[in-house]
């Protein structure tokens, strides 16, 4: 049975929610595959070996994202950049307009709702930020892109179905940005 894995990196999880929005159609797909890693449906910490198709949501924002992307690439035959953040950097890419110091200062000290009298910026058990946000294809080889913020459920289904049938998924420019 085809082994499918999904994971998320620097993202909002909305692409996975779009996957769940397939509703009953998702059950049809899951009936044909073995799901081995998926943060919204199962609690598996380690990335398993011998994955056939991996959907990776989000770009690279920190060192943990980078490690996870490389692990997934090592263990999966086909890697799909899942959603605009994975394909282009997306919303988290706006962080590139600021230095990491400015981002940490804002996030941990100066937002209106933050109370941090000691001015502590956590640096233990929090993965360090990478110098810039980059899309997946800048750190690993990507076989297919599945753009959209989030990708439409029917597009996710058609790409997965094509890959399960050993066909080339069709992603037209129409799916890049709906007007
Ligand atoms: Fe969220 Fe959109 Fe990025 Fe998906 S592409 S993780 S929905 S911001």
Provide an overview of this structure.
Keywords: Oxidoreductase, Ubiquinone. This is NADH ubiquinone oxidoreductase 20 kDa subunit. Residues 12-163 form the NADH:ubiquinone oxidoreductase-like 20kDa subunit domain. By secondary structure, the chain is α/β, with parallel strands linked by helices. The protein has a single domain (2-96, 129-175), classed as 3-Layer(aba) Sandwich (Rossmann fold). It has 6 helices and 7 strands. It has helices spanning 14-20, 24-30, 63-75, 84-88, 100-110, 153-164, and strands at 2-8, 33-37, 51-57, 60-62, 76-82, 129-134, 144-146. The strands form 2 sheets. A 5-stranded parallel sheet has the order 2-1-3-5-7, with helices on both faces. It has a two-stranded antiparallel ribbon with strand order 4-6. The longest helix is centred in the middle third of the chain and has 13 residues, at 63-75. The radius of gyration is 17 Å and the shape is elongated. The model has no long low-confidence stretch (mean pLDDT 93). Iron/sulfur cluster binds at residues 11-12, 14-15, 57-58, 83-85, 90-91, 149-150.
Topology:
Elements: E1 2-8, H1 14-20, H2 24-30, E2 33-37, E3 51-57, E4 60-62, H3 63-75, E5 76-82, H4 84-88, H5 100-110, E6 129-134, E7 144-146, H6 153-164
Parallel strand pairs: 1-2, 1-3, 3-5, 5-7
Antiparallel strand pairs: 4-6
Bound molecules: iron/sulfur cluster.
Iron/sulfur cluster binds at residues 11-12, 14-15, 57-58, 83-85, 90-91, 149-150.
Keywords: Oxidoreductase, Ubiquinone
Protein name: NADH ubiquinone oxidoreductase 20 kDa subunit
GO molecular function, one term: iron-sulfur cluster binding
